[in-house]
Amino acid sequence: MDISDISGIQLATSPLPRTAIDYNSSFEESPAKRVKYSHELTKSFDEKLSQTVTLVLRNNEEVIVDRSLLSHYSTYFRVLFSNEFRDSKSSIHRIRLISATDLHLLLTIPRASEQGIKPNINVQKAVELLEPAAYLQIGIALDYISDVICANLSHEISFSDIIKIFRLALLYYTPLAVRVWRAMIRQFQTMFSTNVYLTLKENELMGLLTDKHLNLKSEDEGTVIVNWIKHNSPLQSDKIVQFAQKNFARRPQPDATKYEVIRNRQPIGAIVSFGGWASRGVAQKIEVFNTRCDRWQSCNFDYDVPNIRRAYNGIEIVDDKLVVFGGFNGFQHYQTTVVFDLATKNWKNGANMHDKRCYVTAAKVKDSHGRQLIYACGGMNGVSRLKTAEIYDYHSDQWTEIANMSHLRSDGAVVTVDNKVVAVGGFDGRNIHFGGEIYDPIVNEWHALSSNMRTRRTGCTAVSIMNHVCMVIGGFNGNKRLDTAEIYDIREGLWHPVSVMHNARSNFSACPMDYSIYVAGGFDGQSTTKESERLDLRTRKWQALPDLAEAKSALRMVSLVDHPFLDELFNISEDDDIVTRW
């Protein structure tokens, strides 16, 4: 089956295909090759019944399958064989819906899953298997097929085909339809720019527009409806015209004060700022950058998480866990670790680090088993600068010391490049570094980078760009705060200058998201600043952004994209009135 050959209207309106399942045993046998399936199950049936059953499939292919095997994996056959229907005891069943090859694959998926093996099937085959898997109710196969389809929604499947798969899933497997709907919500801005949304049905478009998670700019909402009505006949648009007339308005929320919209929406991604050093000590506000309106918003963090508000600390997200470690609160240098579960909203104290670490820098790297490990490097213990480094494994809740760096480094930058940890810049108590080093986990050694940065930097920040490139931004060179930045390609081994920021700053935070690098806070040489800006990596230009709510330095920022915890941070209520009326 070719997805592109299926009419969207046909998928949404046509009845279920005829499968012509015939349990009458009086039929002419086909000379087709018979396939014998081995059985491993112990479920017993009536002793008078044969332990195998002959299935006559598409093109009169015949296969002999163990009854217990079918019953174990298929709810359809389990119900059929365990009841007193006339057809339950028949030794021959006809199912025209499926071929012998596809049946073999559908039975292979759950058997392989039990052994921890993932069968290699492509998206096209997964879509083809959806209907027979749903008809035979092979739950494990349906879940695996759904995973294959959803894993490729963003790059291998066109937007028009995503709509068709959604309609197909509505017929056969609702959990998949929910997941595809979520993908349509995430990618709707692109569907709008490519005009694919014009093929949506009226009720589908209205359903998307009433969803608070829809990824669509406020200024484009009116255009979506106007263009859809122009593209479709007036007879199809009466309902959506009434819908727009009753619901378009300016809403009292940041993302809708300039444009009329259907409802307030939640951004698909956000930058979250934690802690930092403000005028009265550690900053108490947790701020969120709303990418829909390009504005910082204070959020209500209603969970009692002791010691999560710090400055000069490390912070990373690993497996939906916010891990906060090291830092300073104005009175003590932290050695402790706090872990906050973004899914359950619970927190716990993690294992202590081997050293107290203020001015610590950190990065996360995947090991050979696919686990994400946090590297904490350098810093200051309250007495002296450090060259030590250690790794945190969340699963075992354990910090493990690794080889010392070549130099004492506090206030440097640590970044992941090509899944390797690179430490650059920093201060050793006397000198500001402009060199860097890279950690080799195989031999447990640090090796100097092939070249030095173009300027000395401490209080700088680094971010990864793609896999092989990192950017080091701002800092202090011993004379002044810096507005410069430079990039390093690990394959080339050289540093290159990039566009300068609007503001010089040190001890700030930077975070990449959506082809941009966001920068906020820090010290500009005269005072702590609340100014923020971002670099568009496509245009290579810095753009000034609205200020933070309070000036602060030594803050830490993380990005969350399409994450359920954004519901907690923005707390945008469901507009039940719109949903129930339409």
Describe this structure in words.
With 582 residues, this protein is of the alpha+beta class. Among the domains are: 3-180, Potassium Channel Kv1.1, Chain A (2-Layer Sandwich); 187-266 and 574-581, no CATH class; 313-402. The protein has 14 helices and 30 strands. Strands 1-3-2-4 form a 4-stranded mixed β-sheet. Strands 9-8-5-30 form a 4-stranded antiparallel β-sheet. Helix 2 packs across helix 3 and helix 5 runs antiparallel to helix 6 (139-151). The longest helix is centred in the first third of the chain and has 15 residues, at 100-114. It is globular. Pathway: Protein modification; protein ubiquitination.
Mean pLDDT: 87
Q: How far apart are the first and last residues' alpha carbons, in Å? A: 35 Å
The residue fraction in helices comes out at 10-25%
Unreliable spans: 1-45
- Strand order, sheet with most strands: 1-3-2-4
DSSP summary: helix tally: 14
Structural class estimated from helices and strands: alpha+beta
Largest sheet entry? 4 strands, mixed
Please identify which CATH superfamily of the domain at 3-180 we are dealing with. Potassium Channel Kv1.1, Chain A
Q: What would you call the shape? A: globular
List the quaternary state of the chains: single chain
Give the number of DSSP strands: 30
Radius of gyration: 30 Å
CATH class of the domain at 3-180: Alpha Beta
Task: Give the CATH topology of the domain at 3-180.
Answer: Potassium Channel Kv1.1, Chain A
CATH architecture of the domain at 3-180: 2-Layer Sandwich
Name the beta content range.
15-25%
